[in-house]
Design a protein that fits this description.
The protein is built from 13 helices and 19 strands. By secondary structure, it is α+β, with helices and mostly antiparallel strands. About 0% of the residues have low confidence.
């Protein structure tokens, strides 16, 4: 039976130690904990995303070793079937959001991440409360495949080679001599055959095969098994990376557009952080810094779409910190222009607190904002953070000003209150 552990950012996993009333500590079986620890330690010298960026190992008095999540969220699936789901910390007006609320908000945020291939989801069909984020993604993929099957799998002319009793197409002379010296009734030929065994369908079948093996949800596995029956006459793509380069999404292939995005996400896992190795079977992990940045930028563009006088750019790379030579490119998250004078916005996925020096705002971030102001001669520079209950009692604006006319505003966005969220974005952007 698969074991599922759901935790939040910065929560910790213990080596099978139960701690009463410590909701941020989650016990793992010793063998699973040891596998995860060995993997993190073995990966720390690699050039890819350092496993220690995703999770850290430390020790707590009376508990022993703990493995703590950082600001990557998603799912890690161990080879023994254990699933570790990591959710972001998102706050309602008076408390931390529930698991269901958090998943729903997080999925909504992912709509604005460039390489996540979906725009909307039907909450009632997906059962967010019961499923992990990964299983929710699988359910979305299944729904897209069902839509495709309902409309019909597309066929195409596929090059076919074979030793046949009929003649059609082109005779393969070398192969024909090799196979048919004593079989004059046969012809080794190559011809085009109209078939559903086209590359896009082979990729989808490979994805269904993969997900059937890795999914732990009974309904998802049952539906995948059913869908595979429609692909009985389709081969499995053995080299997906190579086959993706052959995909042709013409005008009659609209049903395949989202599906190819899902297939890339599951089979290549290149859009996000790959985290697998000894003991780890699969993962899908999202850096919350990037998710928050994409979400704020996407929502800002949407709420200001009627302000045609505004130009909004993300990750603009217009200036360098030094001009002779041009070195150290600076790329603010969002630049809004109304005329020539811009507004610079940067997002930071970090929990501020009035009980920490400077609320926990890092000195490096303020140096960055100062540089943005100077290079852009900005009207205002704004740092956006997620709202938390710790900041509920801070009613005065947080503004930093220097004598050389640099002003940095600190603003907060409540992810659980869409009306306040939109109001805040409009006030910042205009």
């Amino acid at each position: 039976m698969n074991r599922k552990v759901t935790m939040k950012e910065f929560d910790s996993l213990t080596r099978n130690v139960m701690v009463p009333n410590a909701h941020h500590l989650h016990p793992l079986p010793e063998s699973v904990f040891d596998q995860l620890e060995r993997f993190i330690l073995s990966k720390k010298q690699e050039t890819d995303t350092d496993a220690l960026e995703l999770m850290s190992i430390s020790s707590k008095r009376g508990i022993g070793k703990v493995i703590s999540a950082k600001n990557y969220v998603g799912l890690i699936k161990m080879r023994d079937g254990t699933e570790i789901e990591i959710l972001p910390k998102i706050y309602t007006k008076d408390k931390e959001g529930s698991e269901a609320e958090t998943k729903s908000i997080f999925l909504n945020m992912l709509r604005f991440v460039k390489d996540v291939p979906y725009k909307t989801f039907n909450r009632s069909n997906i059962e967010i409360e019961r499923n992990t984020i990964f299983e929710v993604f699988i359910r979305m993929f299944i729904q897209e495949v069902y839509t495709l099957v309902k409309h019909g799998l597309r066929s195409d002319y596929i090059s076919h080679k074979g030793n046949e009793f009929f003649f059609k197409g082109k005779l393969r002379i070398v192969e024909n001599l090799k196979h048919n010296l004593v079989h004059r009734e046969r012809f080794f030929i190559e011809y085009n055959k109209y078939s559903i065994n086209r590359v896009e369908n082979r990729i989808i079948k490979a994805t269904l095969d993969f997900l059937q093996k890795i999914s732990s949800d009974r309904k998802n596995k049952k539906d995948i098994h059913h869908l595979l029956s429609f692909f009985e006459n389709v081969d499995v793509s053995l080299h997906p990376t190579e086959d993706f380069s052959k995909v042709n999404l013409g005008r009659d292939m609209k049903d395949y557009e989202l599906l190819m995005g899902w297939c890339k996400l599951f089979l290549q896992n290149k859009s996000f952080t790959t985290f697998k190795g000894s003991g780890v079977a699969f993962s899908l992990l999202f850096p919350m810094e990037k998710v928050f940045e994409s979400y704020v930028a996407g929502r800002l563009k949407h709420v200001l779409k009627d302000h045609t006088e505004l130009e909004i750019k993300t990750q603009e790379s217009r200036y360098h910190l030094f001009d002779h030579p041009k070195k150290f490119l600076i790329k603010p998250d969002i630049v809004i222009r109304k005329g020539k004078i811009p507004i610079i916005i940067d997002t930071k996925w970090k929990q501020l607190s009035p009980y920490i020096n400077n609320y926990g705002i890092s000195q490096a971030d303020m140096y960055q904002m100062y540089a943005y102001n100077k290079k852009y001669a900005a009207e205002k520079v704004v740092l956006i953070y997620p709202w938390t209950t710790k900041m509920a009692g801070v009613n005065e604006p947080i503004i930093y000003q220097s004598e050389d006319n640099v002003t940095v505003q600190i603003r907060f966005i409540n992810l659980t209150d869409d009306r306040d969220f939109i109001k805040e974005l409009v006030s910042i952007g205009t």
